[in-house]
Description:
The protein has helices at residues 21-32, 83-96, 149-153, 181-190, 245-257, and strands at residues 10-17, 35-39, 43-47, 53-58, 72-80, 102-105, 109-115, 121-127, 135-136, 139-140, 145-146, 169-176, 194-199, 203-207, 215-218, 234-241, 262-265, 268-272, 278-282. It is of the alpha+beta class. The chain has a single domain, classed as 2,3-Dihydroxybiphenyl 1,2-Dioxygenase, domain 1, CATH 3.10.180.10. The radius of gyration is 18 Å and the shape is globular.
Amino acid sequence: MNFHREPNVFVSQVHLKVADLNRSITFYQQVIGFQLIEQTENKASLSADGKTALVTIEQPENIRPKQPRTTGLYHFALLLPSRSDLAKVIEHFIKIGYPLQGASDHLVSEALYLADPDGNGIEIYADRPSTTWKWNQTEVVMSTERLDIESILAEGDGKPWSGLPSDTIMGHIHLHVSELHKTEEFYCKGLGFDIVTRYGGQALFISTGRYHHHIGLNTWNGIGAPAPSENSVGLKNFTLIYPNEETRKAAVASLEKIGAAVFQENGQFMTEDPSGNRILLSL
């Protein structure tokens, strides 16, 4: 998983707002397989290795249900170490009868899609070896095909599911945005990402280090979609990891050059994309 370490810039964790903290803790432990590493009255941190938080869930006061047709989270994506790990997850979902929203072969990866109790989208996937990815110059070839579940299950090791593997990481995040022109400028000229795939005029996939994508951006909720209210279920923020202070400072300077606001909150650099999605710039 060299695409998620220096010198690349990548997503390390997401912070979600939920309507019922205890319900969400139960879901993320029993259905997804996270370990609970920290909990307060209104917040909990979830980890695959028992140390590093990948997802933080928070129940704000006066929380409102997820608002349709707004910007924000489409899904966050948990990257498993291997195809056999994906087989275990499939067996687990079959056993507990949890409904999936989709299952796709993207050529570069194989993925399952579902949602948490509040409708926050989740992808759980395994990458195909990067040596098998096909590129048309700077664009990676991706598709959405039927997932060969039988083939994946054949790679299972027969051991029972016992939660997420400890080396599961946050593979990418996919966001609803209100438009793509300023969004492309913000993420590419500002944050330093490269476009690796365009889907017509409705979606961009961007990465560093020639990963198939660290971030997906789409306008599928409509051009000009508004940001959700502050106390709505959904994405609070996500964290980008920069390899060192020099590259982070360069990103901050680039953001300010294009007119994007950068501010500090609790000692962390934070910015907002043109659609109101908040991003922590970390090391």
